[in-house]
Amino acid sequence: MKIIWNKVTWFSQVVAIILFVAVFFVGLTVGKKLEREMILGERVTEARFVCGLGGGVSRIISADFYPRAVRLQLPGVSEIYLTQTISASGARYANADESFVFWNKGNTAFVEQNGTTTISDCVTK
What we know:
This protein is an alpha+beta fold and 125 residues long. It is built from 1 helix and 8 strands. The protein has one helix at 7-40, and strands spanning 45-52, 58-66, 69-73, 80-85, 91-94, 100-105, 108-113, 116-124.
């Protein structure tokens, strides 16, 4: 059996490929959102922190708070998900080995990496 390629066949294949790619990316986007909601629960609140580094330079940290976790967006870093851990005062979020810790109390926050404060003087915007 010989396949005869004509304009209709070529056009239908291009349309099929475009539809497949579109459905794939829509599914991926919706799937990520649903997966996040199933694992983390619904977002409780969000905050933007402006953090001073001295010398007039500042960083902005975006935080989405969930019932037992936080999603952070730091400059130059992809998003980070941290689970809530025990703290005496305020909220403490850390990764599994606690090498990255985000502390939040009221409208202030700071970040520790490997026991050293790397981002400080953060206040909600």
